[in-house]
Predict the 3D structure of the following.
Amino acid sequence: MSNYKRVLLKLSGEALMGDKQFGIDNARLQQYAEEIKSIYDEKIEIAIVIGGGNIFRGVQAEEGGMDRTQGDYMGMLATMINSMALQASLEKLGIYTRLQSAIEMKEMAEPYIKRRAVRHLEKRRVVIFGAGTGSPYFTTDSAAALRAIEIEADVILKGTRVDGIYTADPEKDPNAEKYGSITFDEAYSKGLNVMDLTAFTLCKENNLPIVVFDMNKKGNLKKIVEGEKIGTLVTV
């Protein structure tokens, strides 16, 4: 039996690069689609938010002297490219999906409407939320937190390339120790980078737990929804 009925899966755009330096690695995309199907087959209701950092980040634009607002909108378009790619991969596996955009793009996606999104989930469709929040200065972490709260998800599953939250960056510090679970207050006081502060605060105030886990390890996603202690759980 699953621990969760409805989940929001947050994926980073960079993860889609696989071993490439830019863009989308088809093998990684297929791997993620198969992982999602493994929990879809368990009758879990799934919503997804994916970043756009493999294509463009608003921060890049600001560093190059471009207006931040313009750069953020470019980043939102990058998330739509990734969302469409993931949608295609899921549908190839026979999964019904709907793509909703926070910015109107009626030829490609539905507009984001909360009631419609929830109805899709109830009808066993995977819903992908693209274009972030639709507003500049907000990350896709914030979009994930906001959408998860709106659709009343049980948890945010944040898939990364690291298998949880550590006392330090495990890729730089071999002595870094992993947390099995941690509270929002502890994570904040220790300065641990779980999500950006806006997203983190939204989750804390709405009592929405976060699980940070390694999405690249086959089977992890299914193990989490089946109740295994994978990654790090952040709760109130």
The chain has one domain: 6-235. The CA atoms of residues 18 and 27 lie 8 Å apart. Helices lie at 26-40, 58-63, 68-92, 114-122, 140-150, 184-189, 197-205, 220-225. The domain at 6-235 is CATH 3.40.1160.10 (Carbamate kinase).
